[in-house]
Amino acid sequence: xxDKTPIALTIAGSDSGGGAGIQADLKAMSANHxxxxxVVTAITAQNxxxxxxxxxxxxxVVTAQIEAVxxxxxxxxxxxxxxxxxxxIDAVASGLADFKGPIVVDPxxxxxxxxxxxxxxxxxxxxxxxxxxxxxxTPNLPEAARLLGVGEAASTDEMIRQGQALLGLxxxxxLMKGGHGAGDDCTDxxxxxxxxxxxxxxxxxxxxxxxxxxxxxxxxxxxxxxxGKDLADAVSASHSYLKGAIAAADDLTIGEGHGPVHHFYxxxx
Length: 269
Prior knowledge:
This protein is α/β, with parallel strands linked by helices.
């Protein structure tokens, strides 16, 4: 009898350019030794420079995808990405009502190009219906600020305070990501109910190829959680993986804008 295969499910939007969204999630899950399954919530016409169109998948099709996957596959962890609309948020929250495993919520709001990936009227629903499902919420600095209605954190102490404030919206833990901050180092802080759990820093890499970093990070965390790791170990392993993927990003030549990180830098070496 073979050992149980770790399975992670991503519920997110499709990026036709392949650098973010479902495509990045499945690459990151595979690179981190989990079988990736997917539920597509929206289809974007997207490349390294812009999002030119968004089509929300019909609600009944999203619901059918969730039911199909969870009724057959033994999913160990779920990552939620682009949910786009109030209706999609309602459908996903309802579809996951009976799921008992860990859920990683990446509150996707704006693409690297600056294009909106979450409708304004859906933010409150994301706060009230999705954040309470989260084993860990993984906002970058602009996303955390928007969820809280405050300015972006400018220091590690302020990141911790905002992470603690976000806990009040229902997630069990918050990973505050510092990639949008200033300085030579990028610092991420995992915050739990008792305060900071883990602080991880890396030297900032001088590259424009950072498309899909948030998707990749959260999907990798889901992959490690699906393998049974605890949250701190899953975050630490995923941080190390993402650091390598960013460092190797310039080994790829993809598009004319913000290219993707190198998901398979270990396998292609």
